[in-house]
Design goal:
heterodimer, A: alpha/beta, eight-stranded mixed sheet, 13 helices, about 15% strand, B: about 85% helix
Chain lengths: ~350, ~100
């Protein structure tokens, strides 16, 4: 048989196999039997307050001290940081010998509608830091904030210069709200009041948050589905797609009072102009003097590079570094860029500022 | 085989359309229009709620807005208690008076 004919037969056979796999995965997705397990790294709840829980990840091979405390965003689920086994930011940090904790904010309800930034920055984060120190016996913690969690960590470090932080890392963290794009413009440049979008529970409903994020990439959802159709034969791709789109559409209510403060922050561009106030005190990022790392993505469409890059100029630390990557908002912590660049760089940064345990 | 041509067509379409849509959502007009829609939706909702509340109050029944107000009040109380507990824990720690469970 000629080589050309063999090649055609091989191609047809491959396409038939892929079509069968597409059908199988399509049916599994349609009836919902192939949902990926997320947030699977083993952990214990070691403290809680309201909806917030402090998680301590199991690690029998902790090689460095002090521990790392991770602060996720307030508007999305924290499992993006522990997506799936083999593709988990947390799992990789644990594997590098770090003692990892995460302060999960839970799902806000009417009991959280009056929560202000002060509740998180001045009370919850300090309480979590105290608990981590007490459990570990360490005299400080390394603190890391992702997205809006980064803003919380910046505010905490700036408002509490004596907080026992060994270092501070922010990932995809906005500081220049004038450069945030549509999400910033809608409150920053219009007369829209937060109260106009509040739900019955006094919080911004997840559907409003989702609509806001979707408007940033108007064709994003269609493209994701076209990509899925194209790669429906691949179990690995389908699992990753489900985990990612599941998270991207799985927002939580944003506490109303915090949203009002956030809107004022946007209008004042408060972190850049120094007009941020917490509990009646002016808060300046220049008061942050701990070793600092900022990780940002040049293709981040949620927190664009110009919104996150100025943090390095704003903080007062002498020991400050930036890791600018060719990645998107989620790509900084999930997937190949995260595994090959973000996490190794972060681990190296932390290890240099930690003590090796014998 | 057959897919690349379909995919190439979509990619070409996306290449053409996406930058325009993204530019549109970044205009001041889009922000203003979104704010206006949210405002109208909120005003309509408030008017309807207040009309329903008037009708229910006329026959001595609580309206949804009353329940909502009550839920928020309870929520505020819950928050006050939560913050007090956190402040007490901090105070206890500063005094060195920490319970065995660390609370």
């Amino acid at each position: 048989m000629a080589a050309d004919q063999l090649s055609i037969i091989h191609g047809v056979r491959g396409e038939v196999e892929r079509t069968a796999l597409r059908a199988r995965n399509g049916i599994k997705m349609a009836i919902g039997v192939s949902r990926p397990d997320v947030g699977r790294t083993p952990k214990d709840v070691v403290w809680s307050s309201g909806r917030a829980e402090l998680w301590h990840y199991h690690n029998d091979d902790v090689r460095y001290s002090p521990p790392l405390l991770v602060i996720p965003s307030l508007v999305s689920r924290s499992y993006i940081l522990d997506l799936t086994p083999g593709n988990s930011f947390i799992e990789q940090l644990v594997g590098a010998g770090l003692d990892v904790y995460m302060l999960d904010w839970g799902v806000a309800d009417e009991r959280d509608a009056a929560n202000r930034f002060e509740d998180y920055v001045d009370l919850a984060i300090p309480a979590a830091i105290r608990r981590v120190r007490r459990r570990s016996g360490a005299d400080g913690v390394n603190l890391l904030g992702y997205c809006l969690g980064g803003v919380l960590t910046l505010l905490h470090a700036a408002h509490h210069p004596s907080s026992p932080l060994r270092s501070l890392t922010v990932v995809a963290c906005p500081v220049d709200f004038r450069r945030l794009g549509p999400l910033g413009d809608i409150f920053g440049t219009t007369d829209l009041e937060v109260d106009a979008v509040l739900g019955d529970d006094g919080n911004i409903p997840p559907r409003v948050v989702l609509r806001g994020f979707r408007s940033l990439a108007p064709m994003g959802e269609i493209t994701a589905n076209v990509n899925l159709l194209d790669r429906l034969w691949s179990d690995e791709y389908v699992a990753a797609h489900q985990a990612m789109t599941g998270w991207a559409t799985d927002h939580v209510p944003f506490p109303g009072a915090t949203a009002r403060q956030m809107a004022q922050m946007l209008r004042d561009n408060a972190l850049v102009t120094g007009r941020m106030e917490l509990g009646g005190d002016r808060v300046s990022l220049a008061d942050i003097e701990v070793p600092f790392l900022s990780v940002l993505g040049t293709r981040d469409h949620i927190i664009p590079e110009p919104a996150s890059a100025p943090v390095l100029e704003l903080i007062g630390s002498a020991d400050k570094h930036e890791l600018r990557l060719d990645g998107g908002h989620v790509g900084l912590i999930v997937g190949r860029t995260a595994q090959r660049t973000t996490i190794p760089t972060l681990v190296e940064f932390l290890i240099r500022r930690s003590r090796a345990l014998s | 085989m057959r897919r690349p041509s379909v995919r190439a067509a979509y990619d070409a379409l996306e290449h053409e359309v996406e930058p325009r849509l993204e530019a549109l959502v970044r205009t001041a007009g889009f922000a203003q229009a979104s704010a206006l829609v949210a405002d109208i939706r909120s005003s309509v909702g408030t008017s309807v709620d207040s009309w329903i509340a008037r009708v229910l109050h006329a026959v001595n029944l609580p309206a949804g807005t009353d329940v909502q107000r009550l839920r928020r009040r309870i929520g505020e109380l819950d928050r006050e208690v939560r913050l007090l507990r956190l402040e007490l824990a901090q105070y206890a720690e500063e005094r060195g008076d920490v319970r065995p469970d660390g609370g």
